[in-house]
Amino acid sequence: MPALLPFLATGRFFVANSQHPMRFEPFTSLLYAGGVLWILGCSGLALGQEATPWSFSPMVRPDIPQAHDSDTWSEHPVDQFIQEALAGQGLSHSPEAPPHQLLRRLFLDVWGLPPDTDLLKELDHDNFETTWTQWVDRALAGPQYGERWARHWMDLIHYAETHGHDEDAPRENAWPYRDYLIQSLNADKPYATFALEQIAGDAMEPHDPEALIATGFLAAGPWDESSQMGIQDGTLDKELAQYLDRDDMITTVMSSFLGVSVHCARCHDHKFDPIPFEDYYALQAVFAGVDRHDRPFDKDPKLHRLRQDLLTQKEALLAERTTESALLSSINQERTQSWISERQDHLSRWKAGRPLAPPSSEIPLTPWEVLEDGSLFIQPTDSLNGKLTWSLLSPYPKPTAVELEVMADSRLPQGGPGWSDEGDFQLTEFKVYGKGKDSDDWIPILLEAPENDFSKEGTSVRYLIDDDPETHWSIFPQKGQNHRCFFRIASLPDDRDLHMLRVELNHPEEHSQWVGRCRIRWSNVPSDRIEPFLEANLQEAFAYSEETRTLEQKLLLTRHALGRHLDQTLEALPTPPQVYAATSYFSSEGNFKPSLGPRTVRQLRRGSIQQPGKEAQPAALSALSHIPWNPEGADLAEEDSRRLALGKWITHPSNGLFWRTMANRLWQHHFGSPLIPTPNDLGNGGQAPTHPELLDWLACELRDSGGSLKHVHRLILHSRTYRQASTWRKQAAAQDAENTYYWRMSPRRMDAESFRDSLLQLSGQLDARMGGPSVKQFLMDPGIHVTPIVDYKGFDPTHAAMHRRSIYRFLFRTLPDPFMKALDCPDASTWHPERNRSVGSLQALAMLHDPWVIAQSQAMADQLQKVSKHLERQIELLYESSLCRMPNPTEKRLMIEYADRHGLANATRYLWNSNAFVFMP
Description:
It contains 29 helices and 23 strands. The protein is an alpha+beta fold. α26 crosses α27. The longest helix has 23 residues, at 236-258. The two termini are 46 Å apart. The model is unreliable at 1-49 (pLDDT under 50).
C-alpha cells in the first residue's frame, strides 16, 4: 500500500509515487470528507500513530532529470527539475526577461536596493551570460547583501529592540546581534557554523566575542518583564513565566532551523508528527538555565578572553562549583589573608565623633546621654515631630564615608532601636554638613552610594538622601538588633580640610517613630575600597582567629575573598560594550535572578504548571534516531553544554530537516514562494513540497558545499527559471494560477524596507554607513509605567537619522512605525517565515502623503534639476534611475505634462507609486 500523507488544512491530498518516494502527485479520486477518514485510517493517525514525515528522513541526492532532445531550454540542474515538472503539467517556460528588468530584479532581490544603471553600459548583448555572471558576483560580494538578507532572518526569529508585552522597555544593546548577522552573511559563514554559534556560540568558542554576540538569537523574542522581575522566585506564577520564556526559545530554534512545530507538543503528543510530549520537555531541559540579559564582550580577543574567564570563575564561585582544592590553593589563601588584614585595618579606621553640645530639635527632650561607645541615647517627650541635629569635631580632615548605626537598647520598646511600640523608627532624611577651622558657614556634604544590612520591605536606605519627606528607612521586623548603613562622601566643600561636622536626622512630621539610640562614625578609607556589610555567617567566621576557625569557615572566607578579588579585577578592566543575549549569569534585578545552572524542568501534564510530572532530561527529537545525541558524552549538568549538544545535533550532516529548511527559505526569498508552502512546518501538518526532488537537490548542494549560502544563491540566480519574464499568459494561468510550477517569474511587491531604502538611494539621501546602535526615528518620552511614549509623527522627516537603511531602525514591538506597518512590515511579537502581501488604499495613501516620502521626492527632484535644466531630460533620468529603462513616448509625454502642471517632485512621487516601480519585475 502506498504511503499516504494528509494535508487536511488545505483540503489537498497527495499520494507518494511508489516509483519516486519523494515525488507527490494530486490524489483526487476520493471526495474530501471520505478521503479524510480513509487516509486517517490507513495512515494510523486516527489511532494516534503519527506517520513519520518525509522531511524527517536522511537526504539522498536526487538524480538530475535528463532533458529531452527537443528541449534545449537549459542544461542548468535547477532548470532541468523545473522543466520536467512543467512538462508533466503540459506547461512551458516563459522567455527570458529583458536585461534592464533582470538587472533591477537582481539587485532588489539581493540588495533590497535599485542597481547602478551604469551597469547597463557594461551589457554585452552577444555574451549576456558573461555580463550576468559579473552582475551576480557583484551583487553577492556587496555588503548590501548582508543588510538585505539579515532582515529576512530577523523576521523569522521575531527580532526587535524592546521587550514587548505590557512593559515594553527598550533593549539598548540588542543591535550587536543584528550586526553579527550582517557580517556573517557577507562573509558567507558556513551555515552549520552560523546556526551553531547562535544556539551555543559561547560554549563552542568561549573566547570568541563574535560567538558570544551570536547568542543574541536566543534572546531576540519578547520577554515578559513584569512577570520575570515582579513575581517572586519559588512561586507557581514565576515558574510558569520561566516555562513560557523557554517555550519562546524552543519555538524560535526548532522552527527557524528545522521547520518543525515542536511547541505543539507542550500539552500532549503532537497531533500530526511523531513528536511525543516527552520530547518537548527534553528541549525545555536543554534551555533550563538560559535567561535573557545584557552580556559584556570585548572586540579585542585577548581582553575578551580575560573578561570571560573571570566571569566564568565568578559564576562557578556563586554556583558553588569551585572545588575545595582550588579554594585551599596557596594563591587563594594568600588572597584571603590579605583581605582579612585589609578589612581589619579598615574597621579600625571607623571613628565615632562625640557631640560638642546637646542635640537640638523642634521638640523638647529629656536629658540626652552620650554612652561609652560614642553612641547617643535620646528620649523625646511630648510631640515627636521635627528633626534632630548635633555637631562634633571631625575625626579626619578629609573623611571619605559616614556610617549611621541604629542600636538596640533595653530602655527602648521591644529593645529598639526605635521608640515606636514595635521598636521600629522612620527616618526620612540623613544630612551631613561641614566647615573648616576658620569658617562660620555650614556647607552641605554630598552623600552617595548608600549600603545597609537590612531594610523593611518597601523602604530603603536610598530614601535617606532623596530629598523626599514622603519616603523613609525602617527595619521592622528585625527589632532588638543593631542595624547599620553607610554613605560614601561624593565630594567635600571646596575640597577643604574639615574641622567640624554637623549631622541631621529627619523624621516624618506626622509620625512618632524616632530613633532611640544611634552612633555616627567616620572613615578615611578610600571610598572605592570600603566593603559592604558582611552576612552574619561571614561576620561570625571573620571574628574567629585563624587558629580557631573551622574548615567550613575558612572556605566561606576564601569564597568571599576570591569573589572580591574577581570583582575588583573585573572593575579594573575597561568598560565593555554589551549585547542583549542568552546568559545564565548576570547581576540580579529585583526578582529576576540568574539561574547559575540548569533549573529543574518537569513534564507538565496537559501543560499545566499545577500538574508537574517527572523531571525532564535534556535530549532532542526521538523520531530522528539516526542522528546521535551527545556522542562525545559531554557533561550535561552544565547549562552551556546542553545547548552545545543540541546545536551539534541540529547541524549534523545527516539532519535532513536542517538543510531542507534553509534551502526552502533561500528559494522562497528569490521567487516569492517556497518549495514547501509552509516554510515553518515541514511535518505532516504542513503542506507537501511542490518540487521535492529539486528541494532535496538544493539541500544537498548546501550541505556538500560546506554550507555556503552564496553557492546556493548562485545556483538559483544563474538558472533560466530565475531569469524568466513575469508576463502573464492566459492559458498557463488557467492551468496553474498560483504559478506553482514556475512557468514565469511571479511579480512581487517590494517589501517595506526595500521601498523605503530605494527612495533613499534614488534621492541621494542614503547614509550607507554600516552597523552601530540603531537609530530612533521617533521622539520618545517616559511613559506612565515602563513602556515609553513614542511619537513618530512629530519626528523631523529630514533628520539625519531618517537617512539610514531600514535595517538600522530601532524596532519597537508594541509601538511600530505606522508608515512601515502600512507597507506590511511585520509585527515583531511573533514569528514571520513569510510576510503578508497586501495591496490597499492605506498603502497608497502612505506612499503618496507621508511627510518622509514627500521629502524624498523633493530631494530627488532637486537632484535631477542639478543634472539637467530640461524637463524632458529630467523625466528620462527619473525613469532610468527608478526603473532601469527610458520612458516610452506616451509615458514621457504624460509625465512631462504632469510635471509641468504639478512640479517635478510630485511627478517623482507619482512614478514611485506606480506598479512599474513598486513591483519587482
